Amino acid sequence: METVTDKEEIEEIENRIALYSDYIEDKPEIVKKANQLKSDKERMKLLYKTHCTNIRSFKYYIRKTDGQGHFIDTPIYTAPNGEQYIFPKQNWFNNDEIITLIAVLLFAALVYFMIQAARKGKRLYIRPIAGIQEIDNAIGRATEMGRPILFVPGLSGISDVATLAGLAILSKVAKKAAEYDTRILVPCRDFIVLPIAQEIVKEAHYEAGRPDTYDKNSVFFITQAQFAFVAGVNGIMIREKTATNFYMGMFWAESLLMTETGSATGAIQIAGTDAVNQLPFFITTCDYTLIGEELYAASAYLSKQPLILGTLKAQDYMKLLIVVTVVLGTILSTVHLTFFMNWFPAK
Amino acid sequence: MKFADRIQKVDRRIIYVILLLAVVLPLVFRLGFKTYTTTPVEDLYRHIDAAAGRDDMSILMDFTHDPGVLPELYPMDLAILRHCFERNIKVFTISFLPQGAAIIQMALSEVKEDYPNIEANVDYCNFGFKPWSLKLPIMLGMGDDIAEAVETNSEGLKLENLPIMQNMKNYDNIQVVVEISGSSMGQFWVTYARAKFGVDVAVGLTAVMAADVYPFLQTGQFIGSLGGLKGAAEYEQLVDIFAMNGEEFSKKKARNMSWVEAQYKELPELAQLYKYSKARIGMDAQAIVHVLIIIFIILGNIGYFLDKREQKKNM
Amino acid sequence: MKRQIPLMIVLILGLLFVAHVFIPNKLSSDYLDWFMKWMKVIGPFAIVLGVFSLVYVHYNKIKRKAPTWGYSIVTLTALVVTTAVGFIWGIQEGTPYMWIFKNFNVPLGATMFSLLAFYIASAAYKAFRARSIEATVLLVAAIIVMLGRVSIGQAITHWIPDITEWILNVPNLAAKRGIALGVGLGMTATSLKIMLGIERSYLGGKD
Fold it and tell me: Which structural domain range is residue C10 located in?
């Protein structure tokens, strides 16, 4: 190391040392504390923790306004210990959700009891739904005509429950189609739905004892673009002359474009969707339509297992409970008793 | 063939040709029907306008739509962007469809050419295309930290370093999320962003989907909505008569047709451009087509009743 | 075992997600962050699957010279050209990608969508009949709403837009709520069935 001998230079360095020590003195408490720590990692940890605390600390005051631009402020709240900054405490339960929790528990209990009842052999009545009963006939028709079946599992992704319901129906339809040795075409718009649909159709063929007839190319991806997908599906209907078309899942503005083409080609069409807005289009152009919850119920109807029938019955009771709550709430609010309404948080 | 039979069995191609003429003619020869504004559109305008001039408030526009629905939705894109640029409102744009990214580019460049002072990443920031599968992580993540959830803008620049992000942290800095789509994407924003973080959500939808939003409007889960070309036309008009003329929004004035017409006379040149009045021109065609369909329905029913009478006579 | 492990994963993750709704603690939001990272990873892989399926199906069609195989060439060419152009020149305004977008995607998509108007017109003409009292009510409501949504309605009388708003806000809303209620319960029940492993057709195969 070189030793500085020049007087001026020494003076400059001393000045600088003085400047930096002043700076260190002036530093916030936390930096000094951090400097005393040994390792870099510990220092960063302390600083980060303080940073996180600081950005989440707030001062509070109340502003009252008449909605016309006039307002009055209270002084900033000071805690008994003189502290103005308040740091929120983490909760373990979100009190706004208490009604949701009660409803969830109630529903789960209902499902449990209904499944138990069904297992014990209690006969549960469920309303017959024409659209579901016709599924078998529709597949049979395609078989007789020797033409393929088209199954569109909706345009939404896998996180949409309607898509899952559509896929559940696909597994039943594909199995029947495999038994009758009828080709089934499944165009997909979502690439995560694609492998799942492929797997479902493949398994359905295995289950029906016809693994040889499974064609991987019959379940395919077209495009993510909404209307280009429709163009693709319509093309398939016209070229392949599908005898039966199923639309099960989530549909949007494109629904009428597909079903009108299907009706023009003379196919039997069964649709099921929970997209309320598309129901009028499906009802006018399809032979049978599963409305809203019927889509979710369809796989239960088709499998006729007590487990699944139990959940269906539980749904009915839960719906009754909700309707009673709604009616009660309406009556109470009409006579200005709002306590009941206030139990339910608005979101 | 009898008259009743003949109207009952009109070839659908004849209907198509008549419809085509009803659409094309009003577009060529402008009729200039007036536009009347409705509450959901006015609410959205007022809500967006409240962020004017603030650097800690922005609106987030989600362009999750296809080119297929552009005729209906593109005028909305332009009208809202023009409103923001005119009133100095910060804008974020995002799309969860790859095609949406191109639409954002188109819309931004089209409006930006009229506002040379507006700068990218200062006055607006285009997040660009984010994969559909990241929709949930991004929607939820923005509640904590926008820069962390979105990561980069469309040019691949880190969000946290951009000037526009200086005062933007999370949904608290988003005045309203405007979802413009031909699907029910707006409901995702309500379910995930609004329910959890309380951000306001509004939608712009195709007319086929427009009736879907009423339950959400009534509960306040959507603070406003633009329904189809009609909604776009209304928004265009509001931007013209208020933002472009430097007027503060007032519902009373918006509903007062003679005042509105007076405002139209004072419009700056910029507001009179064709691209900014597309929806209103389209509404002329739509009005004619609606009347035409009503005539179709009435004709069809006349045929049906004549047919029924005939059958009764023959019995 | 092949079936039990996925079902366990579904159950555990599902329960954790339910818990997340009720627990606002940092632990819970950390869990969500961790989960979201996984989702981010899965997305890109699925895209590859989709593109692979598209190429595979059309390549086979061309190879077998299946009927209308010419369209498959168009599809594959469009796929390759659009992707390549996007990679080489980027997707900003003024690039060839944007040119393709504006001159192919936009008009083609708009054409498909505009068919809707024609279909609705012919459906209205052919199917909308006052067959019963309900159908008549529906018909009258439809006419009022159609007039109310355009300026002609307002020009006739201001009542038409007012009644339109009422129809959309009251009877339309009531019906929608009714259906939405059932849908909500159906979704909850389906999710519950999936979580508890009662409904497992999404895994493929045996019930």
Answer: 1-89
